[in-house]
Each structure stands twice: as structure tokens, then as C-alpha cells.
Amino acid sequence: MDLESLRSALTDIVLTPWGLGILGLCVGSFLNVVIHRVPKMMEQQWQAEARSVLGLPDATHSDPVAQAEPPQGEAKTLSLSKPASRCPSCGHAIRWYENIPVLSWLALRGKCSSCGTRISLRYPFIELATAALFAACAWRFGNQPTTLLWCGFVAALVAASAIDWDTTILPDDITLPLLWAGLVIAGLGWNLPLSESLWGAVAGYLSLWSVYWLFKLTTGKEGMGYGDFKLLAALGAWLGWQMVLPIVLGSSIIGAVVGIGMKLSSQLREGVYVPYGPFLAGAGLVVTLAGSARVLGWLGWA
Predict the structure, then answer these.
(1) Which of these, 48, 70, 90, 302, could form a disulfide with 115 (CB 3.0-4.6 Å)?
(2) How far is CA 18 from the centre of its chain?
(3) 3-state DSSP call for residue 160?
(4) Nearest alpha-carbon partner for 160 in 227, 92, 225
């Protein structure tokens, strides 16, 4: 078998719904790490920047407690690769066979093998959701290398949504690279014409920016964060300016359905802020997998 035949065979295996579904399970496992650690890494960075601006000494030099060994073997400076994954309750180092997507959670019956602390159902949910979305990308975009780009797009939306849901923060480390990736891919001719991508980013950002300031000037309150502007700009860069309004409409519908569900289940409390980012991402995923022409047809705009 020559190199071209081998490459074709691998493509026929990997870039299929089953192949990308398995890849999605592995990526989803990594996304769980991203979702858990990125907010903590941001907090460490903010603290360091605040100390630098205020001229305060490093925490490890001024706080005797901080000079001690971190609890449960955690590193003083957190990253996506260090320290190795551990149980947050007892510090048990998670072995490789305890970290197999979905299967390990089932084998452990959703509990730490050392202390028996419950492991959140969200871990296998993120893995399965990412696998399903990767498989859907294979179905939507077919057996071609650019399908992997859309898988990366989907993975970024999953991570950003979960982080926003937990913290009401959309990290620039996710939204801005996603925005620039959409523009670069368009510039290389791998997706939309560059003009559609550029104006999609502009329309996405300015539309929510305008709503933000109109609401603030009218009520004196902030109705959303700047991360939402950047996320919609990124969606516009990937999907084009024509899809900005359908995404906003779709996010409103998704938000209303989720809000009603939370209200009926008594999870929605007075004064509690519900992040908008997951609804934008959800609408963006619907548009991505349905296709622009079909979405415009649904709205009667085709």
C-alpha cells in the first residue's frame, strides 16, 4: 500500500461518524479538564496581576500558609497539564485506567476509587455530548479534512458554554482564538468568503454591544457581559453575517425554554444571573449542523 492509499484509508476510518465520535470522547475528556481548570488559572493570573499593579509581594513570600505544600498535591501554579488529575476530596491520583472516557465512570459507579466521593455526572455527559457533536460534524460536512476544523469549533463552544454556566465568564482564551480562527480559515478559502466572515464578526459584536448599551442607558444595569459580544462575533466569523440574527433568535428561544424549565423545577431564583453564552453557543451549533440554507428556509428568508 502506497502512502496515498494509506492516507485515504485512514481518512475513510477517522473522518466518519464512528471515527470522529471516538475522537470526540477523548476530546471531551480533555474538555472536562479545561472546564475545571481554566477558571482557576484565570483567578491565579488576576491575583498575580493585582499584586503586581499594587506593588505587593508575591503571595508565596508574604503568606506563611502559601509557602507550605499545596493541599492534596496540587501545584502552586496550575496549568492544563500539571498537576496530574486527582480527586479533589482525598487527593487520590487518578490512574490511566480510571480516566477512560465514560467507561471508567461506569466501572467506578460514579465514585472515587479511594474515598468513595461522588464523581459528577457532568463528566461523562460532556464526553458523550462532544462525541455526538463530532459525529454530527462528520455527517454534516462529510469525509474531508476541513471537518476537523468544525470539530475544533464545536469543542471550543462546549468548553466556553460550560465555563460560562459555572462562572458567568466567557474566557478570552477561548473566544478570541475562535474569532481569529474563523477569519483566518475564511482568508485561506476553507470556509466562507473572507468578506462574509469579516462582516459576520462585525455584525455579531456590534449587535450585542448595541443591545448592552441601550439596556444600560435605559435601566442603569448591565444585561450581559463583553464575553457574549466576542462569542457572537466568533460565531459570525465562522457562519457569516446572514446567520447572526438567526443565532440571536435561536438563543432567545433556547434561553426561554431553559428558563421555563428552571422556573418549574425551582432552580431559577430571584436575582440569580443566568449566563447567555450557552444559549448563543447552542443556537450556533444548531445553525452549524442544520446549514445556513435550511435555517433561512425555516425563517422564510430563503
Answers:
(1) 90
(2) 22
(3) helix
(4) 227
Residue that has been written with the C-alpha cell 501545584 in this structure: 75
8 Å CB contact between 87 and 94: yes
* Three cell numbers written together for 129: 455530548
Asked if 239 and 214 count as a contact pair (C-beta separation under 8 A), the reply is no
Rounded distance, CA 271 to CA 44, Å? 28
> What whole-number distance in Å separates Cα of residue 261 and Cα of residue 255?
10
The pTM for the full model equals 0.89
Block residue for cell numbers 482557576: 40
Assigned C-alpha cell, 128: 458523550
Per DSSP, 136 falls in state H
- Say which residues have a Cβ less than 8 Å from residue 248's Cβ, sequence separation at least 6: 207, 208, 232, 280, 283
Using an 8 Å Cβ cutoff, are 147 and 20 in contact?
Answer: yes
Per-residue confidence of the chain (302 residues) as pLDDT tens digits? 566 776 676 677 888 999 999 999 999 999 999 999 999 999 999 988 898 888 888 765 545 434 333 444 444 678 888 888 888 888 888 888 889 999 999 999 999 988 989 999 999 999 999 999 999 999 999 989 899 999 999 999 999 999 999 999 999 999 999 999 999 999 999 999 999 999 999 999 999 999 999 999 999 888 788 999 999 999 999 999 999 999 999 999 999 999 888 888 877 766 667 899 999 999 999 999 999 999 999 888 86
Beta strands in 213-259 (DSSP E): none
What is the Cα–Cα distance from 85 to 66, expressed in whole angstroms? 21
CA-CA distances (angstroms) from residue 269 to 1, 153, 217?
63, 33, 25
